[in-house]
Each structure stands twice: as structure tokens, then as C-alpha cells.
Amino acid sequence: MTIHEYQLSQLDYLEAEAVHIFREVAAELERPVLLFSGGKDSIVMLRLAEKAFWPAPMPFPVMHVDTGHNFPEVLEFRDRRVAELGVNLVVASVPDAIERGLVAEEPNGSRNRIQTPVLLEAVEKHRFTALFGGARRDEEKARAKERVFSFRDDFGQWDPKNQRPELWNLYNGRIHLGESIRVFPLSNWTELDVWHYIQREEIAVPSIYYAHDREVFERDGMLFANNEFCRPREGETTFVAKVRYRTVGDASLTAAVRSDADTVEKVIEEIAATRLTERGATRGDDRVSEAAMEDRKKEGYF
Amino acid sequence: MDLLRFATAGSVDDGKSTLIGRLLYDSKAIFTDQLESVERTSQQRGDEYTDLSLLTDGLRAEREQGITIDVAYRYFATPRRKFIIADTPGHIQYTRNMVTGASTADLAIVLVDARKGMVEQSRRHAFLVSLLRVPHLVLAVNKMDLVDWSQEVFESIEKEFSSFATKLDVPDLTVVPISALHGDNIVSRSPNMPWYEGPSLLHHLEHVHIASDRNLVDVRFPVQYVIRPQSLQRTDYRAYAGQVAGGVLKAGDEVMVLPSGFTTRIASIDTADGPVGEAFAPMSVTIRLEDEIDISRGDMICRPHNQPAVAQDIDAMVCWMAETPLAPGQKLAIKHTTRSARALVKELQYRLDVNSLHRDDTATQLGLNDIGRVRLRTTVPLLADEYRRNRQTGGFILIDESTNRTVGAGMITSAS
After folding, report:
1. Which residues, 6 or more positions from B169, have their beta carbon under 8 angstroms from its beta carbon?
2. Pairwise CB contact (< 8 Å): B59 & A145
3. What residue numbers of B does the annotated binding site for GTP cover?
4. Is B14:A24 a contact under the CB 8 Å cutoff?
5. Does the keyword Transferase apply (chain A) (predicted)?
6. Chain A residues close to B224, C-beta within 8 Å
7. Beta strand B239-243 pairing with B225-227
8. Do B321 and A17 count as a contact with CB atoms less than 8 A apart?
9. Which CATH code for domain B309-415?
């Protein structure tokens, strides 16, 4: 940082803003929890939370909404990171919820939508009042309009037309019993900022974010891994390609991209040159409709 | 690389969406899949051209009704700077959204249509920019192609606007003739307007000097969170976390803690990456003091000879953001820096007509999107500065205690 000019770099600015947000929530809301998927955004969030309260440990647990459709590398990463930090991990399990009859498997096999009731159930059970999520406004149009402190009613619903105005760095975290706030400390970060930060802070991320050989097949112009959650249909043939993942979500519908980027420097170079958004390139779920994300969010999605 | 936050003001007709689309497109911040999706929607609706406003209008209701409901944040970067745009809609909830977008902006772009020149709305935009103390204002005179790139038209708008701006106390005004549609004077200087000798819009955004906009004189550190590790290795560690709101803090500095008034010295300024020599806004740091003093969230660390007011009587310009009007006698929750209190509305001094700047002192209440001067009495003292001196320690929000909604934004004019 260029102290002599009293001007922060963009990464220092974004870090300072996120740290402020973490502290504000810890000071004002009683039972926060950090949503941790093992994806790069939640990994960066975890680092920021660690920094915000240093040298004290972060004063809240982390929660993983486990769809059961996991990449083994990501699950292993999650457990290692949680152990290193010594934080509590709450797992809200979708397969378990299916077994209990809380939700039913969707015809297309995607668990994206049905994870919402599972999340809401866990929030109620643990009486969480604030949930940190790694969503960024640059990801998606509906998210571009979301507040840093996003108010949810007792049903976990988001009302985009009725959001609390957010001015300066003053956040309104006041809620009634049963209501909650979703908090997005990375709101102002872009995909490139996240990778620059991973580089600067030398943060480890799951190996699937870097180029590797994988058996894949093509569907709707996207490359899907051949794994237990996602098998080629008739007419789709598998082949080995050098790929990496730009996002890590439900393994049944997150696609890989062709890539030679096997280091953080190369990933940054690749993203700077790409002409596709990370969701457009890799998420089958967002292709459903123009407002797919908005609809999911209104129901209580992250 | 540093960061510039700017807000854009203007209606769809002024070409605001086209301008933003142009900045995003030319800086490669629009992606192929986003553009394809916009083209698809435009085609389905039967538009004659690709409607770039669909890039920013993300909500279903907005696309259906062709209006922008809420502030949208957009991001792009050039090799020199990262930019955050707060794109504020022109029609609905105008004041509330623009006040929100401008509160964090280093710069605001007000657009006017060269054919129409200054209209009532341009005055309102400029006024809100000055009310929120956005340090840099750019007037973008758009659609120059439709006035034959006329220097005369441009200069007459420039002159009219500049004379209005002097009344508003705008610290830095830049006027640029552009055509957002054709890209003239957006990224590079336009060959169509050789008479214009100033920078292109993007060049100005990349180079405008913002380091000195922040208050580096008055040390203000609102205590946000007390850090006390409950571990055996660090039993004695006790420090105060927060985001610097003004001035430059250094280890060894003599400081005063308000409201108690105790003085001590800064032992160290800690971060997770190790101690730092200096801290300035908007750094988030953790301060250790030499003496054990009782300090909690909402207290303020400052210098003994440079203190904010410790005040329960607050005069402020308030922008009202709720359907239910603001009236004297009301009680509200107030959040100012990291301090929360309750406030009684003692008096409405006047309501301001944001178009004519006329002060109506017969007004008895402030309705949705009204702005007026209000006197408040708070339950505990606020540690406050005038908003014009410091946006962080001079701004506050008002919250309805029963609905918990944010219903007002205030800018302190005096505190005692």
C-alpha cells in the first residue's frame, strides 16, 4: 500500500470494507454464521473473517449446505481448512433432508433449488440471525441490486422492490425475532479481484480451480465431468481434456472450462482475457431463464 | 491500482444507459453471454435496437416495465484504476436512490441532452451531488452528434451550468461534450470536436486526483469492536477495532477517548499482517492503547486538541425515504458512526424545494423523497462533525423503531 500518498490500492480498499462489515455484524447481530462451500469466494471470506478479529478467533461458526453432489477435492479442502482454523462446522445436508421428506429430488436431478428449504431449516434450528454469503454483485444481474445487508423476512424471502437504503458505511442490522440478514462482504469484488487477492495472500484453493486432465463430455456447449452425479446421455461421448473449474457448485450441473491455467498467475491472465462470465460459462442452473437467480433468491436462496 | 467510485445521474432519455454500456463495453467489462442475453430479450420484445439498459436493469419487474427500480452497482477496470459505478435510476424514488448512490461516491456524472440543455432535473441532480458532498462533478453534455458537434451549443450549456454550480459550492467541476452512442470523447478525444481541448471522459475518470479528498487532518476513529482473545497466550491483549474515519493515526500519538475524555497514547496499530506505522481512512485496523481505559463500541478516539462535538442537539439536512412522513414529535432510532441512539424530532426548520432551492419554512412535515432541515435531540451524545468537514462522522441514518426500516439519511450542519 502506498502509505505516503494516503491512498489505498483497490485490494486494500476492498479488504478494509469487508473487514468493517464482518466486525459490524459481530457487534450488532447475535448469532451470525458464515456460509462456507469450499468455493473460492467463501475461502476468501474465511480469510477476511480471520483477519477481522485477529488475534482473537472469529466469533461465529461456519455452515456448509451440503447438496451431496460434491467434488471430493472440495469436501476434503473444507474439512482441512475448518480444522486449521479450529472453528465449528455446521453441515446442513440435502440428502438427509430428502430422506426425511423435507424436500423431494427434482426431476432433472439438480439440487440447486431444493437446498433453499434445507438452508432455511438450519437457520431456524440454530436460530442464526445473520448469514455471511460470498455472493458478488458482478456475478449476476439480480445480485447487482442487492444490498450488503440484505434483509430477509421470517420466510427467508428477499423482496427486491423493498430493500433498505444503504448509505455511507452505515448498515442497518435491526431485525425482529425470526427475521434474518444475509450479509455479503464481497459485494464490491469482481472475479478478478478475488483471484488477485488469492494471489496476494497466497491463499490455497481446491485443486479443481487449476488446469488438470479430466474425463468430460459436452452438453449444451459446456463441458461436464463424467462422475457419479452426471453421466453422459445417449449420443454424448466422453473424452479427456485439460480443464479447470471457474465456479464450484453442485457437481451435477457445474461445468468445467478448457484451460491451461495451472497456476494462480495463469488463472488471472485467463480471466482478464475471457469474454464469458463465470456463471454464463459454467452454470447450467442460470440458463433456465432470464430471472432464474432472482426467483431463487426471492425464495430464500443465498 | 486504486479505486474510484462514481455515481451516474440522468434519465434513460439522456443516454445514461448507453453511456454506461459504452464504458463497460469499451473496457471489456461486458461479456459475450451478457450481451447475447440482452440481444435475445430485446428481440423477443420487438425492440428495433439492442437496448443496453437491459444490462443494468436486472430485476424481472424492471425488464417488464422498462424502468429502473433500484441503484445497480457495476464494475469495470482499466490498467490505471478500478471503477465502481452506482447507477441511479431517473424516475422512481429518484432522490432516495441518488442520495444512496452519491453517499459513497468520489465523483458524480450528471448527463444532459445537448438538444435540451439544462432542465429542471439537471439542477436537481447537481444539487443532490453538492448536498452529499461528492468531491468531483462531471457534466457530460451528451448527444453532441445531434447538434452538429456545435461548440456554441456546448459552451452555452457549460456557462449556464457553471453559474448554477457556483451557487452550490461544488469543489471541482469538469464539463465534457460527448456522444455516448458513437463513442465520441468517451475513451479517446473525438475528431468531430477539435475545438474541445479537455480530456475524454474515461481519461478524466482515470486521472482525477482523489487522494486529497479524504480528511487527513482531523483524527477520528469510531470504536467498532473490542478485541479480547480469550486465550492463555494472549491474556493481556485488549484492542479496539474500527475503520479510520479521518486523519492519520501513528503509534506513539497522544490521543483522547470520547465521551470519557481520558487521554493516553497509541501503543501500536495492529492488523493481522503485522503492525502498521500509520493508519488513515478508510483502513480497518486495531488500535492498542498504552493505558487501560474503559472503552466500548460507539466511543471515538481523536486528538486532545482536535475533537468532534459531543452533542445531543443536532441540526441536519435530512432526506426522508419513507411513505409515512417525518414530523416534529416523532421518535426514531439513529445510527451515527458505530453509535446507536434514539432521537426525538424537535423541529422541522424548513423543507427545501430541490428544483428552485426555495426554503419553505411553513412546511409541517417531510414526505417521501423530501429534503429539509431538522433539529434532533438524541438520548446520548453523538461524537459528530459537520458533514461538510467529514462525510463519515457527519452522516447518519434514521430507523423506524417498529418496522426497523431505514427511513431517513441525515447530514449534520451543526451539533452542540
Report:
1. B130
2. yes
3. 10-17, 87-91, 142-145
4. no
5. yes
6. 20, 23-24, 27
7. antiparallel
8. no
9. 2.40.30.10
Chain segment B137-193, per-residue pLDDT in tens: 999 999 999 999 999 999 999 999 998 888 888 889 999 999 988 889 998 899 999
Beta bridge partners of B36: none
Question: For residue A6, which of B393, B272, B212 has the smallest C-alpha distance?
Answer: B212
Determine the average pLDDT of the residues in B9-13.
72
Q: Using a pLDDT cut of 90, give the percent of chain A over it.
A: 58
**What is the C-alpha to C-alpha distance for residues B126 and B110, in angstroms, rounded to an integer?**
7
- For residue B333, pLDDT beyond 90: yes
Spatial distance between the Cα atoms of A184 and A14, rounded to a whole number of angstroms = 12
Residue B291 has pLDDT above 50, yes or no: yes
Q: In this predicted structure, what is the pLDDT of residue A3?
A: 46
Using CA of residue A196, residue A199, residue A200, residue A203, what is the dihedral sign?
Answer: positive
Q: How far apart are CA B39 and CA B62, in angstroms?
A: 16
Q: Is the pLDDT of residue A288 over 90?
A: no
Q: At what angle do helices A191-201 and A10-28 cross, to 10 degrees?
A: 90
Contact (CB<8Å) B73/A51: no
With a cut of 80, say whether residue A176 has pLDDT above it. Answer: yes
Query: Quick one: how far is CA B351 from the chain centroid?
Result: 22
Place of cell 468532534: B308
Compute the distance between CA of residue B178 and CA of residue B201 in angstroms, rounded to an integer. Answer: 8
Sorted by where each starts, the structural domains of chain A and their CATH numbers stand as 3-193+291-298 (3.40.50.620), 207-286 (no CATH)
Which residues from B are below 8 Å from A220, CB to CB?
Answer: none
The residue with cell 493505558 is B291
Q: What homologous superfamily does CATH list for B221-302?
A: Translation factors (2.40.30.10)
- Quote the CATH superfamily of domain B2-212: P-loop containing nucleotide triphosphate hydrolases (3.40.50.300)
- Which residue has cell 412546511? B363
**Per-residue confidence at A249, pLDDT binned at 50, 70, 90?**
confident
Instruction: Determine contact, residues B27/B75, Cβ cutoff 8 Å.
Output: no
Distance of CA B244 to the CA centre of its chain: 17
CA atoms within 13 A on the CB side of A153: 10
What residues in A contact B406, CB-CB < 8 Å? 164-167, 172
